[in-house]
Fold this protein.
Amino acid sequence: MEKWTYALLLLGSIFIPLIRSFESRIYFKGNWPALFAGIFVMMLIFIPWDIWFTAKDVWHFNHDYVSGLYIAGLPIEEWLFFIIIPYAVMFTYEVLRYFFPQFYFPVTVLYLTLALAVFMIVLAVVHHEKTYTVIVTSITALLLIVQLFVKSWKTWLSHYYLGFAVSIIPFMIVNGVLTAFPVVIYNNSENLAIRLTTIPVEDFAYLMSMMLLVMMIYERLLKKKRNTKTYAM
């Protein structure tokens, strides 16, 4: 049963979002084309990154807790991770948009995004010798800076931060299990060796950058569908 640990975590993560995707109020199924386009673009970057890091032993996978099917050096569960976790997070995002449509703080979000970008850049510079730290903070900083130029802080970025904050709770449960068994084993010489419970702090930047990339494609494709009145300027 141990070898299904990762798979069962993913199944638990997708179960409720998937069955609720057909619910009439949010009808998340209607956004699938935009969602999977965003996931596809994200995977074009994150899968090669994952393969490279695994090959460099920045992290590796415990064979006892995966099914044994590998593609390009990654367990099949890891490939599914990049579909299932964004799906669950984006479902959460749409639920929050539905129930909190007036959650809109453009100026606050603008300064928050700028502050986060500067913070990530400082971390990348100070810890340039740590592979995971420098790569994840650099990519996150770049994506945050892009938001300043495309002005997503005027539209969807408020709800993105809300969705990210809420998603941290299930993320810590799932990733906490992955890092506690451990299913994924990190090389602490390549990261800050600072953990929240058993989770490297870099993983939170990883989630942020992954979801920002998905969101940029998702929201761009849904732009015409959105009710612009939601974001009263």
